[in-house]
């Protein structure tokens, strides 16, 4: 096989994949509707965190009002780590949203796959039990420690909860883990390894060790006197991200299968790309080579060109290096095409391994509603970020026929997902479609 033939095969369009369900647990709310409303309103969720008192950074973005006994239920939710609580809640919502019922005879358990990403697994449990070992001795360590904190256990517990008997996998590509899970699920569908894929990411890393480690690495914002203004993606005054927690889960099916069961398709996953910088353990490659390669792969598999892209949900962490490198890579690829750009991290903070799945879900909703959410706290661009058309202040109504969701992670991981609108009946325009002129006018998300 020649190099040219190999490249052509690797870029061949994948089996069209329908997104038929979404479930979200984020600092903006429990459930996809509350999260979407909060992100479109541009309301930052960062706040002072009493649980971090005495640490170098004392602000975070926590999921509000989450009670495992209520959200997860059952007799023993304490057996699971918080990241598993989030994953269970998001997955159950996604399955309901897709019109599926694991208790039904129609649930094809052996043909359902589950792929879940996480950057750290049950790190909260690990820290808690390690403290017990050091302070009160080995007899105080829970025998359930390993099932609670091992990174794959959220996927394992979801499989038990939903009765999934197909491939069950865990992905770990740092902050790109959730996006990698979705790309992996799409490949499982394309290879006929399953008919339905439950895929996403979950993390609960607001812990003393993680906060301290990120702070020592210089990654966190120190704008402690004004928490809501701390996460400032692409802004000239950004000084780091705000650590967050949450989960995002999507239900993926081959488009033909979704149509056959008349599933409520939200959007299509038409392409994906993954590439690695091979540059530095934590810093992105200055030339953005890995991200550019992932972008081109996603477009190639979607049979699209840079000019076709109307919107980008950026990784946009608010760290000086990431935003500068990402802006350069995006501008270098799109140039005059200039798609609108959003970072949800201004509202949600950085949910780590869950970010790629949460932001993919938001990109699906952006395509479905033809509405690009704003980037909270973006006020003053610098020379490197001024090249982007960052959506600011209010959500923007515009025509979006192709949107990309970008995720990057420590280790040089880059994953890009491409989404297009769901098929519509012949002659029916998408709801709320404006004139073809892009970008469209700013729009109050409540309208």
From TrEMBL:
Residues 422-439 have a biased composition (Pro residues). It holds the Pfam family ketoacyl-synt. It comes from the Bacteria. Keywords: Acyltransferase, Transferase. InterPro entries: Beta-ketoacyl_synthase (IPR000794), Ketoacyl_synth_AS (IPR018201), Ketoacyl_synth_C (IPR014031), Ketoacyl_synth_N (IPR014030), PKS_Beta-ketoAc_synthase_dom (IPR020841), Thiolase-like (IPR016039). Residues 270-289, 422-447 are annotated as: Disordered. Signal peptide: none annotated. Gene3D superfamilies: 3.40.47.10. Residues 14-421 form the Ketosynthase family 3 (KS3) domain. Belongs to the thiolase-like superfamily. Beta-ketoacyl-ACP synthases family. This is 3-oxoacyl-ACP synthase. It comes from Streptomyces albospinus.
